[in-house]
User: What shape does this take?
Amino acid sequence: MSVGAALRSEGDAATRVLIAAKAPLPGRAKTRLSPPLSPTLAARLAEAFLTDVLAVARTVDAAAGFLCPQADAADLGRLFAGVPLVVQEGDGLTGALATGVRGGAVVVAGDAPGITAAVIRAAAADPADVVLGPTRDGGFGLIRMRPHRPGIFAGIPWSTGSVLDSTVAACRAAGLTVALLEPVADVDTVDDLAAIDLTRARATRAVLADVGRPTRPAGSGR
Assistant: This one.
């Protein structure tokens, strides 16, 4: 699917949700989980995360799909047959986000299996120009931007603890208003996985149960 066909116009009132995704392949997906997990298990979990995030996203947007690099499109299309794919223009996170936020879409991290529909809806409804869902490591796991200002992402120091602060500063320097939502819990490490609420994450729970790892009980505190 082409980018132009997949993204709605700036004036479209419907909520568009895209999930930032990479192909869940051993040795390429969620590598910070391995070790201690095997590359195969890390890939299984990565696929489960995408499944869980997609399920939640589709309660907000029935046509929610994946935002991915060109190199990952074929594998994602094979594993998630029928799910719309938006292939990013440009490289890395800069290219992914610049493509994804076009048209006011809510872009959600594909490794946040505990995300709620309420957070996605809040991002779509917030009147701020830019809405961000912070993560514990100083980044963000959700973004929605109106109007489209892709240049904002060019100078962000990705993969550092200052991603959120740098993004907020760049947006405000460009004259954009910014709103921060409740934190979005993504999974990069086994400690993240142990801490996350998996109440809604059926696919992730199933993988963990299959390998005999404990899951966090529903309703438990952090």
